[in-house]
Known about the structure:
The protein has helices spanning 9-26, 38-41, 63-79, 94-98, 126-135, 153-165, 177-196, 202-212, 217-226, 239-261; strands spanning 30-36, 51-57, 87-93, 105-111, 114-121, 137-140. It is α+β, with helices and mostly antiparallel strands.
Amino acid sequence: MRALDTIDPAARSIVTAIRDAIVETASDELVGLFVYGSAATGDFEPNVSDIDLIAVLQRVPDDQLVARLRAMHDRLVLATPAWQDRIDLDYISAQGLAGCRSHSTTVARISPGEPFHVLEAGREFILDWHPARQHAITIVGPRIDSVIPEIPEAEYLDEVRRYLARFPDRFDDDASAGSRSYAVLTMCRGLYALRHGERLTKRAAGLRARAAFPRWARVIDRATGWRDPPASDEDDDDPAHVHEARSFVTEMARLLDLDRAE
């Protein structure tokens, strides 16, 4: 079976378009292209899920390559407007990825809510590299475990804990319904992973959290409901909902501290 045939059908056409665009733009530099996340695991939700990819390059992307890739992504958005703000793609050198557990490296990235940009990726990117190594599908190049080193589960869970602990401070007063849904369900999923050692889908984690914390059922239902079509940020602009979602995230972060203290 070809690699593309194993990707969720709802994501296959855009992954193909991304592959072709990257090969045309950076073929001499490209070591491998991999898709992970829900498109690779079979949990993809057509109207909501992002496409998560890693493009491994021969070297750290320089200014010239970054400019070409930025222009390529601009063209891709024009050609496939339905996928605007739903592509999460990191361009990282093979050497930088190989040393991800101990060193930071320069990465070019496009992700939901952010334009194409360059940043220094440190150990926090283990949040991406660890699940990618476990479940990614190769689109171009070698097997994913030949470019991402083995990452102990304990290191990954430490980064999950640090990531979730910062959530309350990142919650804006005007947070959209979509960003609130992401925060609430990501907190549900992270807390479950830390307590039970299993990474669930956002929906499944929401159901488990709803049963474990029934007083927060309304907040979790609202977060899950946003993912059902027709989902729109304009459907939910009540300031009270922002306050409730922030309160939930803050309470779950407090539970993380209590769990760690035990």
